[in-house]
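ok new one. same drill as before - structure tokens go in, u give me an amino acid for every spot. 274 of them this time. try not to just spam alanines like last time pls lmao
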């Protein structure tokens, strides 16, 4: 069986919702919030790809541009060439957002314009975060497939950066952090990323971050994983896998949860209907 983290999350939210979405594959429209989040991720993917193209591997300057002054530094002409090819500036990020934003799912032009403006503010906050330090990007929007006791677990890294002693996985969120603050030390998604990152990049995963991008600010939550935490995540994944395999799709209705469910009007157990 092949499962993704998003499917595991859906099953933990409500097994009946998982059944409708994954097993029965009932169609549902893409919501404006989902479309907006996709536009943000696609923009940051393009930004990361630009970073990767602009990175010069260590000790490669001479082979790329020649050693012109007897030092290990790039000549002014070479630096000018690089900055022209790879203009990593905030206005470039804003341009990428406008090129990528999809307004089609919004009900009115006004709603689309407000979402576009909101995205501009998110890009500003991302740039503030990005500009805090120098970064070496290993991958953006990179898929992975993880074999685990008869289960294939699939997923996708939003962004992976190289560190002095391993890799740092960053996951973007386009909503406010939950209150109280998320318990990132026990978050299953980050545990899966830690396991998959070590397999994909053959390096230890030294940092895991949820980066929440809001209109007013960004919020960064960073953690690590111990072997014991990874073992616990392994057990959680196999337990969910077994319940899905046994077709345990009993609903777990609750008013707020059902209100956000796209299948609320076809589910007989729904605690909320339009």
């Amino acid at each position: 069986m092949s499962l993704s983290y998003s499917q595991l999350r859906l099953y933990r939210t409500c097994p009946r919702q998982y059944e409708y979405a994954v097993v029965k594959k009932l169609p549902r429209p893409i919501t404006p919030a989902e479309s907006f989040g996709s536009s943000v991720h696609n923009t940051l993917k393009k930004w990361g790809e630009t970073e990767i193209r602009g990175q010069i591997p260590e000790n490669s300057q001479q082979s790329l541009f020649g050693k012109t002054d007897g030092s290990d530094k790039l000549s002014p002409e070479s630096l000018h060439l690089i900055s022209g090819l790879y203009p990593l500036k905030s206005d470039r990020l804003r341009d990428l957002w406008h090129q990528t934003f999809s307004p089609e799912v919004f009900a009115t032009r006004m709603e689309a314009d407000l979402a576009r403006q909101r995205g501009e503010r998110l890009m500003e906050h991302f740039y503030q975060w990005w500009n805090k330090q120098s970064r070496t990007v290993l991958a953006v929007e990179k898929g992975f497939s993880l074999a685990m006791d008869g289960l294939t677990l699939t997923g996708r890294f939003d962004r992976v950066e190289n560190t002095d002693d391993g890799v740092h996985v960053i996951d973007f969120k386009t909503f406010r952090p939950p209150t109280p603050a998320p318990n990132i030390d026990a978050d299953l998604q980050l545990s899966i990323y830690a396991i998959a990152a070590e397999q994909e990049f053959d390096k230890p995963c030294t940092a895991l971050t949820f980066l929440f991008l809001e209109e007013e600010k960004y919020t960064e939550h960073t953690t690590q994983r111990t072997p014991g935490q990874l073992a616990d995540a392994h057990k959680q994944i196999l337990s969910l896998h077994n319940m899905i395999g046994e077709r345990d799709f009993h609903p777990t209705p609750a008013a707020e949860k059902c209100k956000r469910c796209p299948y609320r009007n076809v589910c007989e157990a729904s605690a909320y209907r339009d």
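The radius of gyration is 22 Å. and btw The longest helix spans residues 32-54.
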